[in-house]
Design a protein that fits this description.
Blueprint lengths: L1 H78 L6 H21 L3 H4 L3 E3 L16 E6 L2 E5 L2
Antiparallel strand pairs: 1-2, 2-3
């Protein structure tokens, strides 16, 4: 009878040990899952809340600045009064500031920075009359050159 009572305790200990190992593995898998979810959340928060949303705002501000520049030039063309150029200079200042902000936001993100068009000349450093002569030298989309001037 002693043998019969020893076998169940040995078998019981083995089953308990196997269950303990499974419990430890389950806890490890759960911990890795929680860590991965938190890491993904931080990555998404950093990428979208910290970069993309401010980048979108800067792009909108660049467009509004260019509209201001256009309005100023149009007012000057109609009136011939240099005071009409005030929106142009204000828009130019805002556009330059927002382009700088965009460059700063995309500095560590080559995939975003690569979407900017490479121009042959800095459009903010040349006279208004020469803007129509500025041609793109290259354009990169998705990390691949989509256009290169010859």
């Amino acid at each position: 009878m002693k043998e019969a009572s020893e076998k169940p305790s040995w078998l019981t200990r083995r089953v308990q040990a196997a269950l303990l190992v499974l419990l430890v593995l389950l806890a490890a898998v759960l911990a890795v899952g929680v860590w991965s979810a938190a890491s993904l959340y931080r990555s998404g928060e950093n990428r979208y809340i910290g970069v993309v949303i401010p980048l979108q705002a800067s792009v909108r501000q660049v467009v509004l600045g260019m509209v201001q520049e256009e309005s100023g030039v149009r007012g000057y063309m109609i009136t011939g009064d240099r005071k009409s150029l005030a929106p142009y200079f204000d828009g130019r200042r805002k556009t330059k500031a927002n382009l700088g902000r965009m460059a700063k936001l995309t500095r560590d993100r080559p995939s975003l920075a690569a979407r900017l068009v490479v121009l042959g000349r800095d459009p903010l450093a040349i006279p208004v009359e020469e803007l129509r002569d500025v041609k793109p030298v290259a354009t990169m989309l998705g990390g691949q050159w989509a256009y290169e001037a010859e």
